[in-house]
Specification:
With 507 residues, the protein is mainly α. The chain is 62% helix and 6% strand. Strands 2-1-3-5-4 form a 5-stranded mixed β-sheet.
């Protein structure tokens, strides 16, 4: 006797189609990054990550270990491929897009709302996924926390606290801004119906999981005298000094672009709409980080991770509201919303991803909007220039040669490309490079990159200008414009151990 499975309900079929569409959007974004990811070169920050990936630890000066760990995994899987190096950042962005759509579903949104929220979130991922940085993983962590809180509010199942604990722990190992997100969750618990969970063992188990995940990095920080706090203090003071934090509120418009009204509707949905009352915790998860970052003079993009939940809320409220309007008005307003979101995506594709042909008028326009593009140019040429200088030295000088680099881009480029020229490993006092030391035996002759002649004269008895660097297209960046001169230095004024103990700096 044959048996036949029960037919799939119409609702289940719709849910599967909705999920397939969200997965398709996420997959297309991932595929786009993989196809275009090798168009330019390594970014300066990526060269630092690449260095840290080769020296894996439970902590680093500039960030927690998730990004270097995944960078190391990409090296093992894909070798020295730039596209492969960026794979996990791209994957994190794809998952964030999927979660944005699933948030809209959990809030009660139909297919249109789910896709609108996911597409709105895609715009930022097009920027974040273009580089292998902690930005992608921090973004994913914030989005995951938002999604799990929505599921907690939707189901009242306290076991979602376990998932929240995992997401928070992952976020703590990605970027040290996660405590701000946790502060938002904490205020949300005390100010909404979620306070009933304070008596639940699952909340405290979730908190314990997050602390357990973070514990190895915390122990590393303890053993290194919480050096990352010194780094973060230095970077914040620098950002305030050069004006990177003065436009925090206007920068939110740069983050959201034409989707800003959708995010604003999301705030209304969580705080004032009757259909959003159950999810009011998400409103506090926006307000608290906004206040903290504004008061602390944070950079504008620090708040990026809260917008997918706002897009989801805005899309759901808009869908419900449009269903009550006349069809003509509904079609018009729906078209306006989609035009705004698609325009944002096209704008980000055109000017914030490696799409423009290099050195074209389009590329130069994009580079004016996106300063990161300047720092993806010229690294192989810089190393080639250093190799030419090395080859011009006497055999005796070459036998006792070191290469001293001021910034982590220069040091990382020497480390990445220098082996093919037979160059020694770079020496640098910046961030985690300092921990690698100066070699044994220490060098007697140094090719020096990135330092001013005045600072070198205080360190060495002999300072000789031996070359200048410029990339082939004359793209202005720190290496070709601000610190283009290359020096040959001899006779360090202090002993190497004495010099080195005071040489660490942050950047």
């Amino acid at each position: 006797m044959s048996t036949q499975g029960s037919p799939i309900s119409g609702e289940t079929r719709r849910d599967r189609i909705d999920l397939a569409l969200l997965l398709g959007l996420a997959s297309l974004t991932i595929l786009y990054h993989l196809v275009t990811g090798n168009n330019y070169g390594y970014h300066r920050d990526e060269l630092a990550t690449l260095h840290d990936a080769r020296h894996f630890a439970w902590g680093y000066v500039a960030y927690p270990p998730v990004t270097p760990f995944l960078a190391r995994l990409s090296l093992l899987l894909f070798g020295p491929s730039l596209t492969g190096f960026r794979f996990f950042a791209v994957l994190a962005c794809g998952v964030s897009i999927l979660l944005a759509g699933l948030m809209a579903r959990a809030l009660g949104g139909q297919r249109g709302a789910q896709l609108l929220a996911a597409c709105a979130a895609t715009a930022f991922t097009l920027v974040a996924g273009s580089l292998m940085q902690y930005v992608s993983f921090d973004y994913l962590a914030w989005v995951a926390v938002s999604y799990f809180v929505i599921r907690l509010c939707q189901t009242d199942d306290p076991r979602w606290w376990l998932a929240l604990g995992c997401a928070i722990g992952f976020g703590m190992l990605s970027k040290y801004s996660m405590p701000v997100c946790v502060a938002g969750v904490g205020v949300a618990v005390f100010c909404t119906r979620l306070r009933v969970h304070l008596r639940s063992k699952w909340l405290w188990l979730g908190a314990a999981i997050s602390l357990l995940i973070f514990l190895p990095n915390f122990l590393w920080q303890m053993s290194h005298h919480f050096i990352s706090l010194d780094f973060l203090r230095h970077i914040h003071e620098r950002d305030v000094r050069i004006g990177r934090t003065k436009d925090f509120l206007p920068d939110q418009l740069k983050l959201t672009l034409l989707a800003f009204p959708l995010a604003a509707v999301g705030i209304y949905f969580y705080f004032f709409a009757s259909i959003g009352r159950r999810f009011r915790a998400l409103g506090w998860m926006f307000v608290v980080p906004l206040i903290i970052f504004l008061a602390a003079k944070g950079r504008g993009y620090y708040l990026a991770g809260v917008y997918p939940m706002l897009y989801a809320g805005g899309a759901v409220w808009g869908e419900k509201w449009l269903s009550r309007l006349r069809s003509g008005w509904a079609i018009t307003l729906r078209s306006v919303a989609w035009f705004a979101v698609v325009t944002d995506m096209v704008f980000m594709l055109a000017f914030f991803t490696p799409l423009a042909p290099f050195n074209s008028r389009w590329w130069w326009t994009a580079a004016k909007l996106n300063g990161d593009m300047h720092e993806e140019i010229g690294w192989p040429e810089l190393v080639q220039k250093v190799a030419q200088i090395r080859n011009s030295l006497s055999p005796e000088d070459r036998a006792h040669l070191g290469i001293l680099a001021a910034n982590y881009g220069e040091a990382g480029a020497i480390e990445l490309y220098g082996a093919s020229y037979g160059l020694p490993q770079p020496i640098s006092g910046i961030n985690s490079f300092w921990a690698q030391g100066y070699g044994d035996p220490p060098p007697e002759v140094l090719i020096v990159l990135g330092f001013s002649p005045e600072s070198l004269a205080r360190k060495f008895e002999s300072v000789e200008l031996i070359g200048r660097f410029d990339n082939r297209y004359h793209v202005p960046n720190e290496e070709s414009t601000d610190n283009s001169r290359i020096y040959l230095c001899r006779r360090l004024r202090k002993s190497w151990p004495e010099f080195w103990k005071d040489f660490q700096y942050f950047g």
